[in-house]
Design goal:
The complex is a heterodimer. Chain A has 13 helices and 4 strands. Chain A is mainly α. In chain A, strands 1-2 form a two-stranded antiparallel sheet. In chain A, strands 3-4 form a two-stranded antiparallel ribbon. The chains are: A mainly alpha, B mainly alpha. At the A-B interface, helix 1, helix 3, helix 4, helix 5 and helix 7 of A face helix 1, helix 3, helix 4, helix 5 and helix 6 of B.
């Protein structure tokens, strides 16, 4: 009896070992070209900037201090650096507004798709999937053509005689907000649709039987049912928006920098790699907090891809 | 209310949905239309011509960047799909074992971290390695792309595997098939739609990448997206529209195939 048990245990151990071997290549590649380098960023954030970029191997906390502080070049005292703080604030504000806007537009769109007959649903879903997989850069470029001074919006408004001078939209926070809402909308619609597809409309019917009006049914029945989708969509939009790099670079000017551009600046003209590293880690910390809140709110069931 | 009361209807939702679809496609359609403009402008229409497509085709920088993009995407997507298939086989259809949760988290890690952070990390890491080894070829870009493609390839393969039960493999083993033979003759034929979907997703993701490529590339290693990003700083001609249009067509083609493969899976 004991030996049979031992054999079984050995077989199980062998299976686990095989499963580790089988997944090893994927884990090693991700460690070498994604996770591992993140650890190096932690080290770099505690070093001294080199004169031509890169770092000098001397411990310093200046990288972290200058995330929020600025050292006075004359008397060496520290003061709050509102330049960085305002970029943090703009990134947070724009990402939040983008999330709200994509939700306001995405919710009815997802609901519309989910309530179509099965055959039609695939077509509408396909129409959302195409922009989802279209190059972000191309979509940013496309929205730029629409909102620039010589773009469609201004041309049409001038032709209609509503305005005489083009409205300056490019290089403003407004452009970033419109651009990010445009490029991230599909990221909101798809998870919303996934949870709306499962709505049991008998519950909606029950709501009407209990004399609820359409708005009450929406607020008290539908929204609670699709809450996981709302949270998943918001996370999927908020996180890339916070770290956005391409959209602000193309649509914004130097006055509309977001965190991603501030980080890039430190590795380019700024030549302050430790500060850039510290800023990257700060961004990552904010994202991790958002993800943790998400995991807690869904109670561990389902993932970001549900 | 004379007609039947539709419990699914919500006032204004259809209108908003239509506005969204219109707004999603208007910019893309405009971009494509102006690719065929005969004038120099991306705003003033002067007539239909294919001159910008010819010009892009004869622009060595564009062609080189396109070839580089395809090389990287092919290598990265292929390797990512192979290792993701192995990882999916190792992490599905099993009772929980120590480290399973860790593997899930680790494989999905590239999805959790903002791209700009990974880009910075790779810039630092690879610039060290470049100094140590003196090698500055496309290998860095291929490695970086492979890593972030793995989770995208993994997702559809894992989803497909989870919908398959083990009875056929068990039957094969009972008939004295070796594990490799059972995989080749039983698992793989059933799994291939998932593998193909994973391969295509990984390919598109690699082809589209801007941020990580922009930070990792050495001089003269522009891919099509980073080349385009560089052009936005200059005076833009419809050549960019023409490049975007071809790019769009390729993406739409791949996505269409992907969409129908995954739909077929749902119907089975």
């Amino acid at each position: 009896m004991a030996s049979a048990k031992q054999v079984a245990k050995q077989a199980e151990r062998r299976e686990i070992r095989d499963r580790w071997l089988l997944s090893a290549p994927a884990l090693i590649i991700i460690f070498l070209a994604a996770t591992g380098p993140l650890l190096i960023v932690v080290i770099y954030s505690f070093l001294t900037p080199g004169p031509y970029g890169d770092v000098v191997w001397k411990f310093s906390t200046d990288g972290w201090l200058s995330v929020l502080m600025q050292r006075d070049i004359f008397d060496d005292t520290l003061a709050f650096a509102d330049a960085h703080l305002s970029i943090f604030w703009r990134s947070a504000k724009l990402s939040f507004l983008t999330t709200i806007l994509t939700l306001l537009f995405g919710f009815p769109t997802a609901y519309f798709i989910a309530t179509r007959p099965a055959r039609q649903r695939d077509i509408w879903l396909f129409l959302i999937t195409i922009p989802f997989w279209t190059n972000l850069l191309i979509r940013t470029f496309a929205i730029q053509e629409v909102i620039r001074n010589e773009g469609i919006v201004n041309t049409v408004l001038i032709k209609l005689g509503i305005i005489s001078q083009p409205i300056q939209m490019m290089f403003t926070d407004f452009a970033l907000m419109v651009g990010m809402t445009y490029v991230y909308l599909p990221l909101m619609v798809l998870p919303l649709y996934a949870s709306m597809e499962k709505i049991d409309f008998r519950l909606v019917e029950a709501g009407y039987d209990l004399y609820a009006n359409r708005f009450q049914v929406l607020r008290r029945v539908i929204v609670p049912l699709v809450k996981p989708g709302i949270i998943a969509g918001s996370i999927l939009v908020f996180i890339p928006a916070l770290g956005a790099y391409v959209t602000p670079r193309v649509l914004g000017g130097s006055k509309n920098m977001m965190l991603g551009n501030l980080i890039e600046l430190q590795f380019g003209q700024g030549r302050n790699w430790p500060l850039g590293s510290a800023l990257s880690l700060s961004l990552m910390a904010i994202v991790m907090v958002a993800l943790l809140l998400y995991v807690r709110s869904v109670g561990g069931r389902g993932g970001a891809h549900g | 209310m004379a007609s039947r009361f539709d419990i699914r209807r919500q006032t204004g939702f259809t209108t908003i949905a239509m506005i969204c679809f219109f707004a999603l496609y208007l910019p893309i359609v405009t971009l494509v239309v102006y690719a065929f403009n005969s004038g120099n402008s991306i705003a003033i229409w002067e007539g239909v011509s294919l001159r910008w497509f010819y010009q892009a085709w004869n622009n060595n920088q564009v062609v080189d960047a396109a070839i580089r993009s395809l090389q990287i995407a092919l290598v990265a997507a292929t390797i990512a799909t192979i290792v993701a298939t192995m990882a999916a086989l190792a992490t599905t259809r099993t009772k929980p074992y120590p480290g399973l949760g860790f593997k899930y988290a680790f494989i999905n890690q590239p999805l959790m971290v903002p791209e700009i952070v990974t880009a910075v990390a790779l810039l630092i890491f690879f610039s060290r390695i470049k100094i140590w080894t003196g090698y500055s070829g496309l290998g860095y870009l291929m490695a970086a792309h492979t890593a972030f493609c793995i989770p995208f390839a993994y997702l559809p393969i894992r989803a497909r595997l989870e919908s398959m039960d083990l009875s056929l493999e068990t039957a094969a083993a009972d008939l004295y098939a070796t594990p490799w033979k059972a995989f080749r003759r039983v698992t793989f034929p059933l799994l291939w739609p998932g593998i193909l979907a994973g391969l295509m997703l990984a390919f598109v993701i690699s082809l589209d990448d801007v941020v990580i490529t922009e930070f990792v590339k050495s001089g003269g290693q522009d891919t099509l997206p980073t080349y385009m990003l560089g052009q936005f700083r200059r005076f833009i001609t419809p050549e960019i529209n023409a490049i975007s249009t071809v790019f769009l067509l390729i993406s739409i083609l791949i996505v269409t195939v992907f969409f129908f493969i995954s739909r077929k899976k749902d119907q089975e």
